[in-house]
Write a structure and sequence with these properties.
Blueprint (H helix, E strand, L loop, with lengths): L1 E3 L6 H8 L11 E2 L2 E2 L8 H5 L2 E5 L10 H11 L4 H14 L15 H13 L5 E5 L7 H16 L3 E5 L3 H6 L4 E5 L2 E6 L4
Parallel strand pairs: 1-6, 1-7, 4-5, 5-6
Antiparallel strand pairs: 2-3, 7-8
Helix pairs in contact: 3-4, 3-5, 4-5
């Protein structure tokens, strides 16, 4: 599903609500079986483990190579070294970066850095991936490649929620589109549902 809207439409607030960085002022948000307005502060980290995040600015750790940037997400959830050594290469292969496992982030193009971010979001097999402007800092041809990769991940069973300004991408990939304006849904094209 794509979430679109002009600056100030409420996209960032929507993401903060989904990530439970903010509580809704009314109504209820249910995500991955969690009622977010009732979620206790101590349970927020467990809820967030049900999702992967992909950011516009990549948020890679500059002193860690590609393998370790992806493995970091597994360390956080307590995965053992053997599982990490087995799973990270699989995910790097999925995003086409197996040959860059020992490269540092500054040695990668913007598109490659974004694919590392996507691999990190995927590594713990989340139910949902929230992608916040994942194509905002990459070249247009790489934007299409990133969304195509998200599309393939979606077809394999993972829910993708992508916030974007790139209307051409939205038109090329026929999925549900929610348009926000002043914090409200003004259009919901459930074409892809």
């Amino acid at each position: 599903m794509f979430v679109v809207g002009a600056s100030g439409a409420g996209k960032s607030t929507f993401l903060k609500l989904i990530m439970r960085e903010e509580k809704p002022s009314g109504g209820e948000i249910i995500s991955n079986g969690y009622k977010l307005s009732k979620l206790k502060h101590k349970d927020i980290p467990m809820y967030r483990r049900t999702m992967g995040m992909v950011f516009q600015d990549f948020r890679l750790i500059p002193t860690m190579d590609v393998f370790d940037n992806v493995a970091f997400a597994m360390h956080v959830v307590g995965a053992d070294k053997q599982t990490i050594r087995k799973e990270v290469p699989k995910v790097l292969n999925l995003v086409g970066l197996q040959h860059k496992a020992r490269a540092l982030p500054f040695q990668l193009s913007g598109g490659e850095q974004q694919r590392v971010g996507l691999a990190r979001a995927l590594i713990n097999r989340p139910k949902i991936i929230v992608a916040d402007e994942p194509t905002g800092n990459v070249y247009p041809n790489m934007s299409y490649e990133i969304v195509e990769l998200l599309n393939r991940i979606n077809k394999a069973g993972t829910t993708i929620l992508m916030v974007t300004h790139e209307h051409n991408l939205v038109r090329d990939f026929h999925h549900r589109v929610i348009m926000l304006e002043n914090g409200r849904i003004v259009a919901d094209n459930a074409e892809g549902v």
